């Protein structure tokens, strides 16, 4: 799960605010927050800039390898 | 980033997307468009072959086959496209509560236009079919009251359905 929703709420943005900042529809932000859509790199960068953070913080997920 | 304003305008009008055409919507529309293109191309080859076979027996029935199958296909794609748009929520628009009435008015005007266009289209189609099939002459078909009433009825029904469809897109 990415951290877009967490950072958006931290900055008191609504989904509509963020959507207008990055130039997409509100539904798209909703899909991204719920991990139902993988955004392009350009959109990820725009979201990161709008939320005043970086790509790793927003989208990087630690992959835990199970030891067999 | 691509900035194809004319292309985007036509895509939005065709799929009924009122909001911004962003990368998610564009990718979904492209996917549907690709599948539609492949199936339509297959249909084109198959229907041409069948029409040719019918033409060998009777040219009139070949015309009727082409017109009927194309109309049927248009209707099927209309239904499939509408279902896809609803499924992917591509046509949802967020409207502030105080703007709802003005948006409804705009949709009502658009539904009127759609209904009138559909009625005229169906009227013209019924005339063409009547003339081609030899049931009546062009003059008789144009003045046929039953054709006019049917087209009027179809136009009204289509307009009302379109308006209801538009209203479903609104998300307050």
UniProtKB/TrEMBL annotation, chain A:
InterPro entries (alphabetical): Cro/C1-type_HTH, Lambda_DNA-bd_dom_sf
Coiled coil (residue ranges): none
Keywords: DNA-binding
Pfam families linked: HTH_3
Domain of life: Bacteria
Cited SUPFAM superfamilies: lambda repressor-like DNA-binding domains
Full protein name: HTH cro/C1-type domain-containing protein
Residue ranges crossing the lipid bilayer per the database entry: none
Domain HTH cro/C1-type intervals: 4-58
UniProtKB/TrEMBL annotation, chain B:
Recorded superkingdom: Bacteria
Pfam assignment, any one: DUF3278
Bilayer-crossing regions: 35-55, 61-80, 111-133, 145-166
InterPro entries registered for this protein in UniProt: DUF3278 (IPR021697), MFS_trans_sf (IPR036259)
Keyword list, A-Z: Membrane, Transmembrane, Transmembrane helix
Name of the protein: DUF3278 domain-containing protein
Organism phylogeny: Bacteria, Bacillati, Bacillota, Bacilli, Lactobacillales
């Amino acid at each position: 799960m990415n951290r877009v929703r967490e950072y958006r709420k931290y900055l008191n943005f609504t989904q509509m605010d963020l959507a207008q900042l990055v130039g997409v529809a509100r539904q798209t932000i909703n899909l991204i927050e719920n991990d139902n859509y993988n955004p392009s790199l350009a959109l990820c960068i725009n979201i990161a800039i709008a939320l005043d953070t970086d790509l790793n913080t927003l989208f990087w997920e630690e992959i835990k390898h199970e030891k067999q | 980033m691509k900035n194809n304003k004319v292309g985007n305008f036509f895509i939005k009008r065709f799929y009924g997307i009122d909001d911004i055409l962003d990368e998610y919507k564009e990718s979904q529309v492209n996917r549907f468009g690709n599948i539609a293109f492949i199936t339509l191309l297959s249909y084109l080859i198959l229907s041409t072959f069948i029409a040719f076979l019918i033409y060998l027996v009777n040219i009139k029935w070949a015309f009727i086959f082409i017109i009927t199958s194309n109309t049927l296909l248009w209707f099927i794609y209309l239904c499939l496209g509408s279902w896809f748009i609803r499924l992917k929520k591509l046509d949802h628009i967020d409207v502030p509560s105080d703007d709802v009435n003005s948006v409804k008015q705009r949709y009502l005007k658009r539904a009127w236009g759609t209904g009138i266009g559909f009625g005229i289209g169906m009227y013209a189609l019924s005339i063409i079919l009547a003339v081609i099939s030899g049931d009546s002459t062009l003059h008789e078909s144009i003045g046929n009251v039953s054709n006019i009433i049917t087209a009027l009825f179809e136009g009204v029904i289509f307009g009302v359905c379109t308006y209801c469809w538009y209203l479903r897109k609104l998300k307050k």
